[in-house]
Amino acid sequence: MSTFPERSRCERCPHQPLCRGTAAVDQTAGLRRRVGRHESLFRAGDPVGNQIYSIRSGSFKLEMAAPHCKPQVIGFALPPEFLGLNMLGMAVHSCSAVALEDSEVCCIEWDRQRFRGRRQPLQRDGLHLLLSAEIRREQRAILMLHHTHAEQRMAELMLTLSRRHDANGYSSTQFRLPMSRCDMASYLGVTPECVSRVIVQLRRQALLDLRRRDVTLLDPAALQRMVDGQPVRP
Amino acid sequence: MSTFPERSRCERCPHQPLCRGTAAVDQTAGLRRRVGRHESLFRAGDPVGNQIYSIRSGSFKLEMAAPHCKPQVIGFALPPEFLGLNMLGMAVHSCSAVALEDSEVCCIEWDRQRFRGRRQPLQRDGLHLLLSAEIRREQRAILMLHHTHAEQRMAELMLTLSRRHDANGYSSTQFRLPMSRCDMASYLGVTPECVSRVIVQLRRQALLDLRRRDVTLLDPAALQRMVDGQPVRP
DNA sequence: CGCCCTATTGAATATAATCAACCGCCGTGG
DNA sequence: CCACGGCGGTTGATTATATTCAATAGGGCG
Fold first, then answer.
1. How wide is the angle at C-alpha A91 spanned by C-alphas A86 and A96, nearest 5°?
2. pLDDT tens digits, A122-165
3. Is the minimum CB–CB distance between A178 and chain B shorter than 8 Å?
4. How many Cα atoms within 13 Å fall on the side-chain side of residue A152?
């Protein structure tokens, strides 16, 4: 890898079509940003600016920190890829981009105000937000799969479903699973037998009651602690 | 779960802002599509249409099939979520959406022609494509994490990096890793010790040579077979 | 009522995690 | 220039966890 050859002008840049039209891009200066090895381009919790980043040289890792866990690497980014696509419409970053070597990025303006002002129909900007949110969802799924223990993954799935039901105005503690054990197993990256055993374990710990497809979360807080790798019983 | 309450008109639909403006949405009829339990809304390999789907009732699983492997569930989708966000700009679908119960979706037009015709500056539609591609990347990462064996995950990472280098015009068989063993381990969802051991195994099998940060892929085809769960030696 | 499919349970095995020790490169400073 | 110290990486032994293979149980549907 090392660094990719620096092209000082934008003419041959593969991102040029995206950049063109954003304010200062046509005059190459000023929009580049250097990020030294082990420095962050942005960190989880940082306020989100109005730009996405295209990598000109170097490389980055994307880290996401589950609460109370050490950060997990959810991806790597190389030229000519982008950073920040997952935060459109967000107030703060949900993950960190750390340079693996001395790197350089271009800042590409994302016209947030145009969306805020609603001067255009929602459709196209709304789609941006939607796509960005979908990326974050996939990233959370990746984080889920980083949990070694099947118990944690199952707890995470149950809490995710719970939150989605809650968001729709349905009970967050009691609902019906639409999927089979095999589907759950495949999603969680374990065998169906393991799913069965984990259900028994969670029931024994009085965290949930799950029979056939009907589930009742008896202790969501404890499930969350399990996901976070903390002691289940406080 | 079961089915969410059917709202026959779009007025109270949370997707209404996205739909408004697309051709036939304002007259509710005709754009709904029913999908029976275990039927597919779309299948991997199907040609992509000009629409994304919003789930009105029911639920879906998203399945992705690695070549020569049985399909893996990479996600679940419930109302009021969307399907098809990962295929903007694609010719064929990369995964299948299978209804877990009798379901109903709205078809929302994605104005592909507007992008094709370039009547608008690329910036905004280009961003759509970019975001959609990013979703697909995350989905591939999810698929990677479904491989039980650390050997397979490592092989997958090496091949991914190889392809990215290839796409940039660099050698696809010989390159330098920008990340540490710990970063690789975190990304792969295993311990650094396990990464070390896997490297030894892959070297013993003459699949690659990896010392410090310099890697040479000695047998990419065999690595691919390993990822696919086939016998490494044909 | 009985079949079939899904789910569960059990026992043996394989794989990765863990804990601990060691290595070797690299940069620092004498 | 060499000695030292530190960190990233490797190796080893043990343990925990999930897989595998096999057998059984339970519901739904004809």
1. 50
2. 344 566 776 777 777 777 778 778 888 999 999 999 998 898 88
3. yes
4. 17
For residue A57, the surrounding DSSP H or E stretch is strand A51-57
- DSSP state letters, A156-181: HHHHHHHHHHHHTTS-SSEEE--S-H
Write the CB contacts of A216 (distance below 8 Å, at least 6 apart in sequence).
A173, A174, A208, A209, A210
B129 touching chain A per CB within 8 A: no
Is residue B103 within 8 Å of residue B60, measured between CB atoms? yes
Q: What is the C-alpha to C-alpha distance for residues A15 and A85, in angstroms, rounded to an integer?
A: 14
Residue B22 forms contact with A (CB below 8 Å): yes
**DSSP E strand boundaries for chain B:** 32-35, 40-42, 51-57, 60-64, 72-77, 82-83, 96-99, 103-109, 174-176, 208-211, 214-217
Q: Helix or strand or coil: residue B132?
A: helix
Distance CA B96, CA B62 (A): 6
Which chain A residue's Cα is nearest to B72?
A: A186
CB-based contact A111:A120 (threshold 8 Å):
no
Covered bases, chain D (protein CB within 7 Å) = 8-13, 17-22, 27-28
Interchain proximity A168–B78, CB inside 8 Å: yes
d(CA A221, CA A176): 20
Q: Which residues contact A71 (CB under 8 A, 6 or more apart)?
A: A44, A63, A64, A65, A96, B186
Residues β-bridged to residue A211: A214
**Which candidate from A72, A76, A110 shows the least CB-CB separation from B179?**
A76
The bases of strand C with some atom under 7 A from any protein CB are 6-11, 15-20, 25-26
Q: Which residues of chain B make contact with A74, given a CB cutoff of 8 A?
A: 141, 187
- Distance CA(A69)–CA(A186), nearest Å, equals 25
pTM above threshold 0.90: no
Residues in chain A: 234
Count CB atoms within 10 A of the CB of residue B141.
22
List pLDDT tens digits, range B28-60. 434 788 888 888 999 988 998 878 888 888 888
Q: What is the pLDDT of residue B209?
A: 93
Asked if the C-beta of A85 comes within 8 angstroms of chain B's C-beta atoms, the answer is yes
